[in-house]
Amino acid sequence: MKHSSTRDLYGYWNQRRGAYAAPERADIDPTAIPRVLADTFLLGTDASGELVFRLAGTRVCALFCRELKGEDFVDLFDRASRRQIQDLAGIVCDELEATVTGVTAQIGDGSAAELELLLLPLRHRGRTDTRILGVLTPVAAPYWLGAIPVTSLSLGMLRHLGPAGAPAATSPPPPLPAGRPRHGFVVYDGGRR
């Protein structure tokens, strides 16, 4: 992780999750991370299942020179990267895998800047497929930040935050009261006899 915002948010997220693979959305307190809020965003799935910005910090919005709330996250990426970012978001949600990746931001005159993107899974009401916490920040602030909008992002090298980021211990959720153990599975009686 190259940027302090990335390291700080990852450290806070890691501390808040405790023994779980991901913290609950309600456990994230913005007042506990004031230095990184401007670089932070929260994604959620809309009715069609697309990832949209629920919240975006001021420096994230400054990259695009507009408010991002409600916009599709994947649409910020160039065509070559869209499938990759969808797959990456799926890994974050489905496998509860924190991921950091390099991103190149392009502007209209052909200039580019190196950014760092961190995606962290969140549980929301017990589900893990509806929220992602992240950071998108320039490794070094470009001269045009806030004056010229980024036209597209492209993915670079990525890294899954593996064993060091893995939870120390996880315990399975308790079985529902009607379930009974059978050969390593929990059996729930259905409506048929």
Structure at a glance:
By secondary structure, this protein is α+β, with helices and mostly antiparallel strands.
Task: Explain this structure.
By secondary structure, the protein is of the alpha+beta class. The protein has a single domain (4-168), classed as Beta-Lactamase, CATH 3.30.450.20. It has three helices and eight strands, in the order αββααββββββ. The chain has helices at residues 4-17, 58-64, 79-94; strands at 40-45, 51-56, 99-107, 112-124, 127-138, 150-160, 180-182, 185-187. A six-stranded antiparallel beta sheet has the order 2-1-5-4-3-6, with helices on both faces. The protein has a two-stranded antiparallel ribbon with strand order 7-8. It is globular.
Question: What's the CATH topology label?
Answer: Beta-Lactamase
The largest sheet has its strands arranged as 2-1-5-4-3-6
Count of discrete domains: 1
What would you say the CATH architecture is?
2-Layer Sandwich
Main β-sheet: number of strands, strand sense, barrel status?
Answer: 6 strands, antiparallel
Count of helices?
A: 3
Keywords:
8 strands; 193 residues; globular; 3 helices; six-stranded antiparallel beta sheet; alpha+beta; 19% helix; Beta-Lactamase; single chain
